[in-house]
Design a protein that fits this description.
With 295 residues, this protein is mainly α. The chain contains 11 helices and 4 strands.
Length: 295
């Protein structure tokens, strides 16, 4: 039996794959949080609930309207992102002029309301969402068995993360977004509709959470509480990478997923806390995070 660092190769690569999958989810969710905080300075505690809404949107689209997974990847983020844009327009915009803590409390309250509502309707047990036929099965790589759907998650997450980074950091639209949040009066003087940009930015961050929820639906059971515990981990990832850092969210999300997966191989007891231990260590050495800018 082939051994890698003292453990069987199958166990090592299996946990590495699980770590990459979790890292893909962490990266996408952290990216949405980083966009919302970095550009709007809103600490979005409803992000986990919006991730859950994406999974439920895909589930309901399939069972009520017969819309398949591939269409749900487009429609669910659009629906939930529109819901997020309405939240920003009619709720968050009313408190932008006061302390940011009120935004945190508002989104936290929204998360509790959404989760409670879905719990009353669907119960606490999970609902099954099938893997699409095109991605069922897998391939034997010799050292491990790779399910096609798991490989798809990692690949599409990396592509989406890079595309979003390029959009925000390297395009004129991204420049408008950054400038509109740093000096809105100047941008409005140039004829840019800054309030609309803010609404669309928040909706886009929420849509990323919903997109992640659709990706997660065939792996995890679709349940009202699926985003609650994950959100805590994702916030830790964002803090490690640096609040508001787009590239930091992507790299740290993937890296922390791998660290968590490999910890399950060598010291399973610490797998649920290793990310928080890393967060404490990073904050002691660099309070702004690995990729954050010092105040």
């Amino acid at each position: 039996m082939t051994m890698i660092f003292g453990v069987p190769a199958a166990a090592f690569f299996g946990q590495l794959l699980l770590g990459l999958i979790n890292g893909a989810f962490y990266a996408l969710l952290s990216l949405g949080l980083a966009i919302i905080f970095g550009l709007l300075k809103i600490i979005n505690f409803a992000h986990g609930a919006q991730y859950m809404l994406g999974a439920f949107a895909a589930y309901l689209l399939l069972h009520l309207l017969g819309i398949n997974y591939w269409m749900a990847l487009f429609l669910a983020p659009l629906i939930v992102g529109t819901f997020g844009a309405l939240i920003e327009r009619y709720l968050l915009r009313r408190i932008t002029h006061i302390d940011h803590m009120y935004g945190l409390l508002l989104t936290f309250g929204l998360a509790l309301i959404i989760q409670g509502l879905f719990t009353n309707i669907f119960g606490v047990s999970g609902n099954r969402y099938p893997v699409p036929d095109a991605l069922s099965g897998g391939v034997n790589l010799g050292f491990m068995f790779l399910p096609y759907y798991r490989g798809w998650i990692v690949a599409i997450a990396v592509v989406v993360c890079i595309a979003v980074w390029f959009l925000i950091e390297k395009t004129k639209l991204g420049g408008y977004l950054r400038a509109g949040t740093e000096n809105p009066a100047l941008m409005q003087a140039f004829g840019i509709n800054v309030p609309l940009l803010v609404t669309l930015t928040y909706g886009f961050g929420v849509a990323l959470a919903a997109f992640t929820g659709v990706l997660a639906a065939p792996i995890y059971s679709v349940a009202p509480g699926m985003g609650a515990n994950l959100l805590i981990v994702v916030f830790a990832v964002v803090v490690i990478g640096g609040m508001g850092s787009i590239m930091g969210a992507i790299i740290t999300g993937l890296a922390m997923g791998i660290v968590e997966g490999l910890t399950k191989v060598y010291y399973p007891e610490a797998s649920n806390t290793v990310i928080f231990l890393v967060m404490i260590f990073v904050l002691l050495l660099r309070p702004a995070g690995l990729f954050g800018k010092e105040a």
